[in-house]
Amino acid sequence: MLKKLTHGQFNFFTKSTFITGLITAIMIVAGGNSWAANGLVTPNDMKRGSLLLKTTKAGKMVEAIQLATNVEIDINGPIARTKVTQRFRNPSDGWVEGTYVFPLPETSAVDTLKMQIGDRFIEGVIKPKEEARKIYDDAKREGKKASLVEQLRPNLFTNSVANIGPQEIVVVQIEYQETVRQSNGLFSLRFPMVAAPRYNPKPRIVESVNFENDEQWGTVKDPIPDREEITSPIINPVKQAKSNPVTLNVNLASGFPIGEIKSPFHDITADYKSKDQVTVSLSDHVVPADRDFELNWKAEPKKSPRVALFRETIGQDDYFLAFITPPKLVQFEQDEITTPDREVIFVIDNSGSMAGPSMRQAKESLLLALAKLRNKDSFNIIRFDDTYEILFPSALKANTGNLDVAKRFVSSLEADGGTEMLPALEAALEDQTPHDKSTLRQIVFLTDGAIGNEKQMFDTIVKKRGRSRIFTVGIGSAPNSHFMNRASSYGKGTFTHIGSEQQVRSRMNELFTKLETPVLTDLHANWTESNKSEKNNFEMSPSQLPDLYSGEPVVILAKAKNTIRSVKETLDVSGQFANQPWTIKLPLHKAQQGNGISKLWGRKKIAEIEGRYFLADNWNVLDQEILDTATKYGLVSKMTSLVAVDITPTRPTGTDYSSQEIALNLPAGWDFEKVFGPDYNSVPEPLEDASISSLHTLASRDTPLGDPSSAKVKSIPLPATATTAELKIIFGILILLATVLFMLVSRKMLPNGQRP
Known about the structure:
Layout: H1 7-31, E1 40-41, E2 52-54, E3 61-63, E4 66-76, E5 79-89, E6 95-103, E7 109-117, E8 120-123, E9 125-128, H2 129-141, E10 144-153, E11 156-164, E12 169-179, E13 181-183, E14 186-191, E15 204-210, E16 215-221, E17 234-235, E18 245-253, E19 258-262, E20 268-274, E21 277-282, E22 287-288, E23 293-299, E24 307-314, E25 317-324, E26 341-349, H3 357-372, E27 378-384, E28 388-390, E29 396-397, H4 400-411, H5 421-429, E30 439-447, H6 454-464, E31 469-475, H7 481-490, E32 495-498, H8 504-516, E33 521-527, E34 538-541, E35 554-561, E36 570-577, E37 580-587, E38 592-593, H9 597-611, H10 619-633, E39 640-649, E40 657-661, E41 664-665, H11 672-676, H12 696-699, H13 711-714, H14 725-746
Parallel strand pairs: 4-18, 6-40, 17-41, 24-38, 26-27, 26-30, 30-31, 31-32
Antiparallel strand pairs: 1-3, 2-3, 4-5, 5-12, 6-11, 7-8, 7-12, 9-39, 10-11, 10-39, 13-14, 14-23, 15-16, 18-21, 18-22, 19-23, 20-21, 24-25, 25-35, 27-28, 27-29, 33-36, 34-35, 36-37
Helix pairs in contact: 1-14, 3-4, 3-8, 5-6, 6-7, 9-10
């Protein structure tokens, strides 16, 4: 039974009620509850499934940024243009900065950055790397939205987005150009979806001693100075749902009748528009970013082109792109073909990142390779994790007894430990007969390439390769293609990728065809005689054409002044094939129109300059060359970045923000504990399902970024404001009204009609 209140009791109660209601209303109007003001939450605060990240404040967490990606690829003949649209969603009630480490093809020429905020578009500009970083940091500090795309490796980039408001979506789009890969009549394009974790060897301390004064000092030599930048948090697939959904579409205009088209790692739907045009999409529409996407296509029988020539004119310069497939070996007399004896050194990676399907693929590939050896060949095997082991003291003949020992050795391999690749490479390059020209020395390297010290590896290959040729075999769902391609290029070999056990036999057979057959050597390209006077106005990349193996095309990028364009003018490519001279003449006036060739030229020039780092000590000069080239052609490089800044500040002055690295999926097939160990703390588990299905809407939003002039048609619906301030104000006013009403009603409860 309720008692009537005394005058003093009522006075205290009504005043405290009013004050409490007022404080509550003010709190709601000012920003809701206290934890939401800066985005910090506890698990009990959450009303939806979300991935929570720990903070420095005990018991407090922050909702992880959600990322979804849309990929649109347009292929015209041998040239591909790709748009990658990344949607950063901040599900929390605080302000955040997101950083996403993502892979791109190692030959991609990244030249465009756009940022969309509501219906507004901000175009990115190329700046020297340090200047771009300063522009971005200043914008971040001033509360402006900004995006910064930086290159960590030619195939590894970061996209940082500053000042993403509460519940807000910021859309960032980058574009790049690349060429289609061709081998043995198979055309292919690869889009990497996940940056695999990389093993980073520890820095070494090099000590020097001065015996005169008994002093010593140590110098730390870090082979990976950017180890922090290339390392991202990884989602444990055993405990957590996969994230980072991707939608992908390809518009293929091959330029020839397409015989077949397939994707070895994803289910696709192909819609044929004509014999040479097809639209490809993912059958599942949305997939997790946990494995590379690859598209392969072939021409109808006898319709595959052997030669393609494209041209783009920019100002006073012409840029040419040529694809030339040499004649097949069967066109030469068999008695003219001699295959020399070979010494083959197999190097197999059995580190922890190879656990699971990758190890099975590597072992099966090596066993198949052993079966391909001839009796007159000699061989050896080196296996490595954080140690390495050489099977035989030296290379032995491939007889039955030695092969049986080798097969048992390979079959017993298990994946575990770190990836100390350099000692194994150095052991493989130790040549006991360096001046023997009667045999071919070939090194076959089977690995996923999940390392951060690529420069150490390249430096070793360039300086110690000798007569050896290096053939890399990339294993798994997301190999480090930058390492694979550059290692084989510097090693004058080829790169083969095996992404599934179904590909082992076909890809290894293709590799051994290259190992066993003569190469096209002494390749060079020249202008016709009529233009010798203009020789200084002609430049080719690569400046020295590499040797070619069976089924590989010659790919030439050239730049020339367009002062003279004679009908008789040709580009002549010559070489030695199967001990016979071979020449092909390309009439330049018949070149087809191509777009973006100048960008590809610039990217190729940068790669060529980077290759000179290992043979020179004038690094500052080479850095300047890269800066000048990247600036001229508007490309992201190790010396340049793309930065976009919105001039309007959006984050309120004095409001804190948090920075997050977006967690990546573990590549498909990888064993989390084998890579990180059982005690590794990955990102915390989601409270509920925050999987791909829950992010489907974010991934499959409206059309990606388009031309700014059509923004109102193609823009993505974004929140109009950064907070739900209007609702909070209304709710606060209602609480104030309820408090006043309570006071009026309560007056009737005073004893003897007293007034408060």
